[in-house]
């Protein structure tokens, strides 16, 4: 298209003649929420289903090399010896529903539980590639570790066609590195869950007060210091040989904590202390005023 | 106004209360005696505790994190059994930018209905048990929450719950989830939509009596638990000669964000308090203005009656028929008493902000002293 071309010679900047294929995804990150819903879907499968599949939603980096999987939803499918069927209509409906809440997330691929790749995987991959075109679909295989001789883990794959005449049921799955990615602000939620999973009954009462939380963190730090102390004492006593790397690391840590002059620190400390006390006083004052005000409304 | 239409949308999408327990299967299986005590079709066993599934925790966290606006909403799905309300799934509700019209309310209802249908197809729980709201700095008291919850408490089994998630606390390293429901006395006043002073007195309503808290538990199912322990487990680094801090790696390394000394967020908290106090002052001004107006109109009406009485007495002395007295109500329009709901909610908000500030300050103090020593 020549848009407002004033020069006599018009050179077409071609986008068609040299088709720049989107680059293959080389990295996959997965958000915990997506992982957990896959696990939940696996729990809710019916007995005759050996594995479950679903759609992965997420975003891609501008150059297409990194795929961020942000969420996932379950899709109905059935596998028999003769055929595999995926409920496409269901998939479309769910995708439309999801885009209403999170318009930025698009289809990036699909997941399945269990790590066996077979002909059906290739067929489903082919279907999802059409959904994500021109980008490549990724496949995330989540091993729940619930079956014998398997270890829990997540693997991600991209596919490429194979053979002289590419057929949908044949393809090569190439593994790509996959990482768990979450926002730092969501961190405490994950901590909460992992703490809960180690507590008896796998339940934990809520809400935890900030002070209790602080207490737990301080206790764990003090336990770590104790462990280091025991180790250092044993090394000094000559019971076990010291690790040089560890020693350097400890020295670095101690050097950091000793930084700061005494006088200026005191001043800053006192100023910060006064600020904090002031805020605490203000907060208390506000609360009592609010309480009084609401009581007065009842008397008036 | 965003709230009413959204509330209407919610109301439209909820199943009728009679349909909530759905043993619609034609063949009834006998309930085993061990379970007979805990199954209540009529929802007679009172709720003791709300149990939140790990997946829901992560979903709410993600939704709250990605939200562009201040508060986000979503529906909670699950089941109740023997006093425990198990929340096993949730989905986010689309954010309403400007839904003054009926159309978006309808589409929201349609969205929920088709989402529920879709979830049922993959064997997920599809009965609504409440909703969640994510806010920052503890300000969850607002009209919106009260309105939606009032509808839920009418329509849902057990009245439904609202789970409040605090984004700012979570960022400070303490993921906070709390479950609430409206108190009966507030609901009574709300249904009569009467928040005059007398009604407040008779219901003994202050902001602390609007919501009652239900104990909340977080539960992690064994599969998720084993997966998480796999993720948090540290394993030797695959590199041949790693740096000291990379000798052992874990997918989720331990964190110490609770020990962060910075007091970020305090300024924001203070700003919000000032804003709310300003709002409250405005609201109080409005109420006072209305009350003065009422008093003025009353005085006028009384003067008029007094005058008419004197006139009548004078006429009686002259043996004339007295003038009618009943047209006072028509002559003077006494405005209705102002609703105190808004100011009550604002007070509740101020209280919540202040409480938040107080906790932040006190934990800050402790951290400062522990660093000092």
**Proportion of residues in extended strands of chain A:** 15-25%
Global morphology of chain B: extended
How much helical structure, as a percent, in the residues of chain B?
Answer: 40-55%
**Counted beta strands of chain A:** 11
Strands ordered across the widest β-sheet of chain A: 9-8-7-6-2-3-1-10
CA-based gyration radius of chain B: 28 Å
Strand content of chain B: 15-25%
| Helix content, binned percent of chain A | 40-55%
Structural class determined from secondary elements of chain B: alpha/beta
CATH class of the largest domain in chain B: Alpha Beta
Total DSSP helices of chain A: 7
Rg of chain A: 29 Å
The SSE string of chain A, one letter per element, is: EHEEEEHEHEEEEHEHHH
What can be said about the biggest beta sheet of chain B? 8 strands, mixed
Write down the CATH class of the largest domain in chain A: Alpha Beta
Total discrete domains of chain B: 2
Oligomer: heterodimer
Q: Summarize model confidence as the mean pLDDT of chain A.
A: 78
Structure description:
The complex is a heterodimer of chains A (300) and B (373). Chain A is of the alpha/beta class and 300 residues long. Chain A has 2 domains: 27-180, Cytidine Deaminase, domain 2, CATH 3.40.140; 184-198 and 206-299, no CATH class. Chain A is 44% helix and 21% strand. Chain A has an 8-stranded mixed sheet. In chain A, strands 4-5 form a two-stranded antiparallel ribbon. The longest helix of chain A has 38 residues, at 262-299. Chain A is extended and about 80 Å long. In chain A, 30% of the residues are buried. The model of chain A is unreliable at 1-19 (pLDDT under 50). Chain B is an alpha/beta fold and 373 residues long. Chain B folds into 2 domains: 40-224, Cytidine Deaminase, domain 2 (3-Layer(aba) Sandwich), CATH 3.40.140.10; 264-372. Chain B contains 12 helices and 10 strands. In chain B, the strands form 2 sheets. In chain B, strands 7-6-5-4-2-3-1-8 form an 8-stranded mixed sheet. A two-stranded antiparallel sheet of chain B has the order 9-10. In chain B, strand 4 (128-135), helix 5 (143-155) and strand 5 (161-166) form a beta-alpha-beta unit. In chain B, helix 1 (2-13) packs parallel to helix 4 and helix 10 runs antiparallel to helix 12. Chain B is extended, with a radius of gyration of 28 Å. Chain B starts with a helix and ends with a helix. Mean pLDDT of chain B is 75; it is low at 15-25. At the A-B interface, helix 1, strand 3, helix 2, helix 4 and strand 11 of A face strand 1, helix 3, strand 3, helix 4 and helix 6 of B. Strand 11 (203-206) of chain A pairs antiparallel with strand 8 (216-219) of chain B.
